[in-house]
TrEMBL record, chains A, B, C:
Domain BMC circularly permuted: 14-125, 126-233
GO molecular function: structural molecule activity
Protein name: Microcompartment protein PduB
Pfam families documented for this protein: BMC (PF00936)
Organism: Furfurilactobacillus siliginis
Amino acid sequence: PATKNVGKTDLTEFVGTAPVGDTIGMVIANVDSELSKNLHLQSEFRSLGILSARTGAGPQIMAVDEAVKATNTEVVSVQMPRDTKGGAGHGSLIIVGGNDVSDVRRAIEVALADVPNKFGDVYNSAAGHLELQYTARASEACHFAFGAPVGKAYGLIAGAPAGIGVVMGDTALKAANVDVLSFASPAYGTSYSNEGVLHISGDSGAVRQAVIAAREVGLKLLGTLGEEPKNDFPSYI
Amino acid sequence: PATKNVGKTDLTEFVGTAPVGDTIGMVIANVDSELSKNLHLQSEFRSLGILSARTGAGPQIMAVDEAVKATNTEVVSVQMPRDTKGGAGHGSLIIVGGNDVSDVRRAIEVALADVPNKFGDVYNSAAGHLELQYTARASEACHFAFGAPVGKAYGLIAGAPAGIGVVMGDTALKAANVDVLSFASPAYGTSYSNEGVLHISGDSGAVRQAVIAAREVGLKLLGTLGEEPKNDFPSYI
Amino acid sequence: PATKNVGKTDLTEFVGTAPVGDTIGMVIANVDSELSKNLHLQSEFRSLGILSARTGAGPQIMAVDEAVKATNTEVVSVQMPRDTKGGAGHGSLIIVGGNDVSDVRRAIEVALADVPNKFGDVYNSAAGHLELQYTARASEACHFAFGAPVGKAYGLIAGAPAGIGVVMGDTALKAANVDVLSFASPAYGTSYSNEGVLHISGDSGAVRQAVIAAREVGLKLLGTLGEEPKNDFPSYI
């Protein structure tokens, strides 16, 4: 499902696209004040960076997590439409703020470049998908979106249809001693997506071990509904 | 839209799949207590049975309604993602609890076996779908999901796009003397699905008559938007 | 994506279809009182007119806006399912009420006839869509759905994925002096659609100018995600 970057534009607002998820990055150097007041931002900034996608919330949020570590910017909005173009999950609208347009542009460039990497543990089949994410040190985007403690290891374990995520979550918690942040499901903490999503925190080795154990079980379960689930980019976990 | 059950797995959590709706059944013999606390269950149990699907909430809920009648289990969660893989309706995540894993496994087996039957009055076309359900004696799943009085006849009358469900509902109520439990629509009682859904209760003959009258009108209306709507399994009502 | 109107029916409830969006129009001459109580209508009426669609909320709402100006009817419900058959936006369920079935039938006929026109500034690509709407004099449907002041010019500026709508909105507000009614996005004021939508009001020339400026930027941005976005009906703005 790689997206062709066919078009180009000389619009100053355009930063670039990522080759997956219909992901586009943009900046507004000096946002209109009436628009800013109506965007439901956590804090108002002169310059905004925007990462927007049809498919994927986790990968883009994790990519922005890296971007805000590397730049002088702040996450001011994370929204998750019910999308994936008929798939079971979310798209994403993430906005970062800064006082200088070069900072927010740099943040969006860093995030766009990292999006394919963070799709490395997204596995798709005709019946559903799995998503695994892991960071040894969560930053502001994981905190904003998922309540991850900043500076600690964080893991995301998702399965679709949602029941697969329930069993993956149970497997993860039996595999290693980690803290549960929350479990999201169609009626709780998702935008009615068909996902079961466990968010965990704790010791980095334990979080990674829990994520890997869940991935193994998820691949087997989703495989019973048809063909073997495949990732489009190399696994990073 | 029958789903191939290509894969197999020896995972003890896997129970089976149904040949429609990307429906998978699973059990957890002894659920992790931290997971259980985060699943938003009506009551906590040692063993959980899980029925999860991309397409269909009504058929799976009706199938679990039969399953809990037949086993020593209880419905502890019914969640309805906005799904159907680009269609107009819901998927489902249904969890039953029990104190013995053999009970919950049996419940999921019974439900999986009954799912195709309960798709018998689901009619699809490229433009939308109709769904009719009927039981002479509603049990816990219909009560949990739709507020149906336990032990009385219950009927579900749905049309998509939603306006078709409005006219079907009006037809049903003029055809027989039944009680309205509720009318669900995109902004009320659905997960923003494009369905109009009348839930009725009452005398079993009257409920069945109302459902049949609505089906006739729904087939004519949905047919005006393209080809004749078709069911993939034999009608049971 | 024009929908064939293959079928016909002699049902008195059927009014017609529009050749886009799987849009169907129906009437109920004398609505069942129990159904009426459960429909969450703003006011109850003897006769109801129903416009229901899989794809498009803006075009149908704008078409009903014209219809209620032209007939003795009132908008009593506007609901927006998350739909578009796997696309990024909404479908719609719009109900108008009247005391005479001939009035509501006429309203639905007028709306159905105007739907293609109001799709004139909907631009689609595989990656997303843009929607622009404009009226020099908003009426009850725009007021009900979007809070537009009745009798004043109103404009709708939408982009999907949602971030494109943010930049279009910023462009619009810098192009002309208009009032912001609201900005809708996945988590605010939509049904979790992947759209950014600016609603504006003000002087008719200014509103139109803002809409046109946003359209130009939106076409460039959406084009970077693949092929050039196309409208299926002639632009009316």
